[in-house]
Amino acid sequence: MDLHLRDRVMLVIGASDGIGAATAKLLAREGARVALAARRGDALDRVVDEMRLQNAPDPLPLILDAASEGAADLAVDRTVERFGALHGLVVIASPMGPRMPLHESSNADWRHYIDNGLMIAVQACRAALAPMRRQRDGAIVTTAAYSMRAQKGSLAAYTAAKAAVASLTKNIAKTYGADGIRANCIAPGVVEKDAASSVELAARYGVPPERARYEFVHREFGMNVALERAGRHEEFADMIVFLLSRRASYVTGSTINIDGGTDF
């Protein structure tokens, strides 16, 4: 299926590994022109090198902390300066912080999730709206989490910030739809980490590596997933790239579960 992404300009916030890196590489394979933003320059360079090996059209690495004020504006400005437009924005960045029940949490704990979860999305979306409104053309994908619908005592601040991201996305879809802008949110379930983690967990629980991450969350957190495995980074990227494409031209304001059939 042709997703009609050739020469479309995409900015991925949080692209140095995991879902963000998989999304950037898939966009490049589809012919998009991709800007990648992340804090870790060495990891970002490795992703860019991989994209160039697959003949990606001129990827633009942007080393920055997306949580810092003005960083998103800089990323958007640099992207438009290089490519002349901005057609799609993906916001993956949202580092996990301290976990504790509400009565043990501090204002600093809450600020971590607000600043590094919600405000990254706010600043990136706000910056992207200017060129998208001028073009009357744009697609935004943000990242929430399945856990905002399956509350756990230690994740009060995390899930509150993720629920706010989903709400923000719906507001953008409603407010800017007449400007030709779509906005959708994904809610990932269990995400595979890396090969080393899978091998270690497989040995710990005596299960195959492909089941290891699921076994961990099942035993430690009581999570049940119908497919009995974690999602691969590429499986989340597939949905993100579809939502950015013109094949999803009538999809907006949605929060889409990508969770392998997780019980909420």
UniProtKB/TrEMBL annotation:
Pfam families attached to this UniProt entry: adh_short_C2
PROSITE patterns hit by this protein: ADH_SHORT
InterPro entries, per database record: NAD(P)-bd_dom_sf, Sc_DH/Rdtase_CS, SDR_fam
Recorded GO MF terms: oxidoreductase activity, acting on the CH-OH group of donors, NAD or NADP as acceptor
A Gene Ontology BP annotation from the UniProt entry: fatty acid elongation
Source taxon at top rank: Bacteria
PANTHER family membership: BLL7886 PROTEIN, SHORT-CHAIN DEHYDROGENASES/REDUCTASES FAMILY MEMBER
Family to which the UniProt record says this protein belongs: Belongs to the short-chain dehydrogenases/reductases (SDR) family.
Protein name as annotated: SDR family oxidoreductase
Organism of provenance: Scleromatobacter humisilvae
